[in-house]
Amino acid sequence: MDNKAQASAEFILLFGGIFVVVLLAIFMYKNYMNDLTGEISSKELNEFNSQLNTLGRYFK
Questions:
Q1: What Å distances lie between residue 48 and 14, 37, 54, 55, 56, CA to CA?
Q2: C-alpha–C-alpha distance, residues 19 and 29, integer Å
Q3: What secondary structure letter does DSSP report for 60?
Q4: What Rg value do the Cα atoms of the chain yield, rounded?
Q5: By three-state DSSP, how is residue 34 classified?
Q6: Is the per-residue pLDDT at 5 higher than 80?
Q7: What is the largest CA-CA distance in the chain?
């Protein structure tokens, strides 16, 4: 009877550890995607400003 309880406790600890690792991976991936989104927006904004400056030369 004692061996069954120990096996159950070990499974609970194992699944808890896996759960923590998955949560950390999701958190890190979320931060990575947010940083990537900021870089994409910044790049698009810089390209848009460049295009406007190019068009502005034609109207001077």
A1: 51, 16, 10, 11, 12
A2: 15
A3: -
A4: 26
A5: helix
A6: yes
A7: 89
H or E segment at 43? helix 2-58
54 token code pair: 């190019």
Q: Using alpha carbons only, what angle is made at residue 23 by residues 22 and 25, rounded to the nearest 5 degrees?
A: 65
- pLDDT tens, position by position, 22-55: 999 988 888 777 776 666 667 777 788 888 888 7
Q: Which residue has the tokens 């460049």?
A: 50
Spatial distance between the Cα atoms of 30 and 18, rounded to a whole number of angstroms: 18
Read off the pLDDT of each residue in 3-22 and give the average, rounded to a whole number.
91
